[in-house]
Design goal:
By secondary structure, this protein is an alpha/beta fold. Helices cover 40% and strands 12% of the residues. The strands form 3 sheets. It has a 3-stranded parallel beta sheet with strand order 5-6-7, sandwiched between helices.
């Protein structure tokens, strides 16, 4: 599942940018939504706009961005049923593991970008170890995260709410969607399950209803090459 707005009830990256960015980060979001820039370019540029130390930003996130209260119980339930849970996030990445630990979420896999830090503990280079080996669009390839999970474990459920989740949804066996992701699923022909919290996700996974299976286009529609 996604992190910002999904496992966490708020978009942490947006909160940090509103509080600590020193430039026009919103125009970059707009260019990404219009398809003029890939998320690699957008999140790297926005990371460079953050003008605060790491601990200051982590404290702000903890104070203003609560986790979904149903997420930790959902992960505990999943572990008892041998269901692997993974976060796939195309944001700054650095706040995810501290926030999961603070919320006492059982250990899960985190797939995201890698924020490096300067000597004075401010944002330095943002790296993309989980991007696609060929595509230059997304920083973290959610398509590849889903395909890797299916290869390792079998059927995959994908949970999200935003535009960056569109490409993971296309390749999942069952997609849980709300907010902006709903429109993308409807436009892309992806069957989806509406959800409000992780109790809804758990109820659907516990049911006898079979997953619809992935749309799985030959090439991701977000594909960008040099």
């Amino acid at each position: 599942m996604d992190f910002d707005g999904t496992a966490c009830s708020h978009d942490v990256a947006e909160h940090l940018l509103r509080e600590f960015a020193h430039d026009d980060w919103e125009s970059l979001d707009d260019a990404w939504e219009r398809g003029r820039l890939g998320s690699q370019d957008v999140v790297a540029a926005q990371s460079a706009m953050l003008d605060a130390e790491r601990d200051t930003m982590l404290a702000f996130a903890a104070a203003h961005c609560p986790m979904d209260p149903t997420f930790a119980p959902f992960v505990a339930w999943a572990h008892t049923h041998d269901i692997e849970v993974a976060i796939a996030s195309d944001g700054f990445g650095f706040y995810i593991e501290p926030m999961l630990a603070a919320a006492k979420v059982p250990e899960i896999t985190v797939i995201t970008n890698e924020q490096r830090w300067t000597g004075d503990d401010r944002p330095g280079e943002l790296r993309f170890p989980r991007r696609h080996v060929e595509c230059l669009g997304c920083g973290t390839c959610k398509m590849q995260a889903v395909l890797d999970a299916r290869s390792d474990r079998g059927a995959v459920a994908f949970v999200g709410e935003g535009s960056s989740d569109r490409y993971g949804a296309l390749y999942a066996d069952v997609t849980f969607a709300k907010l902006a992701l709903v429109a993308h699923c409807e436009r892309d022909g992806v069957p989806y399950v509406a959800w409000r919290d992780f109790d809804d996700v758990r109820a659907r996974l516990e049911s006898d209803e079979l997953p619809p299976g992935p749309v799985s286009p030959v090439r991701c529609p977000g594909w960008t090459v040099p």
